[in-house]
From TrEMBL:
Bilayer-crossing regions: 42-63
Organism lineage: Eukaryota, Metazoa, Ecdysozoa, Arthropoda, Hexapoda
GO cellular component: mitochondrial inner membrane
Subunit-level organization: Interacts with CNNM4/ACDP4. Interacts with RANBP2.
Subcellular location per the Swiss-Prot or TrEMBL entry: Mitochondrion inner membrane
Membrane topology summary: Single-pass membrane protein
One example GO MF annotation: copper ion binding
Keywords noted in UniProt: Membrane, Transmembrane, Transmembrane helix
Protein name: Cytochrome c oxidase assembly protein COX11, mitochondrial
Main location: mitochondrion
Function: Exerts its effect at some terminal stage of cytochrome c oxidase synthesis, probably by being involved in the insertion of the copper B into subunit I.
Pfam families (UniProt xref): CtaG_Cox11
Amino acid sequence: MSLIFRRLCRQDLFRRLEPMRFVDSRTLKTSQDKIIKNRSTLYYFTGIGVLLVGCSYAAVPLYRIFCQAYSYGGTTSTHSDQNLENVQKVADRKIKIRFNADIGSSMRWNFRPQQTEIIVSPGETALAFYTARNSTNDAVTGISTYNVIPFEAGQYFNKIQCFCFEEQMLNPHEEVDMPVFFYIDPDFAQDPKLEFCDEIVLSYTFFEAKEGLKLPMPSFIGNSRK
């Protein structure tokens, strides 16, 4: 009788503990799922953050490749001096090239063109200079963009050498001269949209190079494609 009683008590205790074990296992699984979900969310947003930082650092080279490939926003094409051998000068067409210089709102340089304008013919090479001076007591690093007006002339404005899209560091009170070696493609003279164009403005803007700097895209890109 005593043995039977002990067996009944043991079975009853087992039945009481079994639901408790089931509840604890389910609760543990739910907690593990939450941990995995939170960890996945953390990885997701960390990945987005890394991507955004990468895009910020890539903004300058991507802007340069995009604009130079399609001559958007009046941006010019870049050529080596090896292409000059086959360039024919159009002597009876004269174009006035005007030079402009600007700086970003936080830039602490003095930046100006050394010449206000020059006269060239399509197919004729020309050399111009800009001067930048750091008037502060701190070293300042700058980076520049360029533009051409009218926008349609950008595809014919070929720069052989320039200082755009490259970081330039000036020490306190340092001054440098920066060359621009270029020519206007002879096809400029055959473009009906530029038949009455006798003046082109080449403009450079220097910005202070900072972490995550995104150089501004021209607001008239849509117009340049029409």
